[in-house]
């Protein structure tokens, strides 16, 4: 009787192991079927990461270029203000040709004095706000 009980228990264990073996085989088959999909997804993810890295690098490059432009403008703001104030105060009532001539002479005089203004900036630009930063 005890031998029969032991045999029955061992058979039940074997049945359980058979079920586990089948489940494991199904899992392996399922994994093999999905492996190609996972590889594709991994490749796509890698490509996406590379694109993002490139975008971030470009962002910081553009950011630094814009900072340099702003720094250059900041360094010239006093001179730009001087030229704009002089243009508005003294040239407002003059004819366009006289204004342009005076403006050019003032620019030359400022350069001779070591005062550099933002290239191409007019009094109107200064009063209304600097032109937008060029797109990089």
TrEMBL record:
This is Uncharacterized protein. It comes from Hemiselmis tepida.
């Amino acid at each position: 009787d005890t031998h029969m009980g032991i045999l029955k228990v061992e058979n039940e264990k074997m049945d359980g192991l058979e079920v586990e073996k089948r489940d494991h085989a199904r899992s392996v088959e399922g994994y093999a079927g999905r492996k190609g999909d996972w590889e594709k997804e991994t490749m796509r993810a890698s490509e996406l990461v590379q694109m993002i890295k490139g975008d971030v690098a470009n962002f910081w490059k553009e950011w630094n270029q814009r900072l340099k432009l702003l720094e250059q403008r900041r360094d010239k703001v006093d001179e730009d203000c001087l030229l704009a104030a002089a243009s508005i105060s003294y040239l407002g009532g003059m004819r366009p040709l006289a204004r342009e001539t005076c403006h050019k002479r003032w620019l030359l005089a400022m350069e001779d004095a070591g005062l550099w203004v933002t290239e191409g900036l007019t009094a109107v630009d200064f009063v209304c706000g600097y032109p937008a930063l060029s797109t990089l």
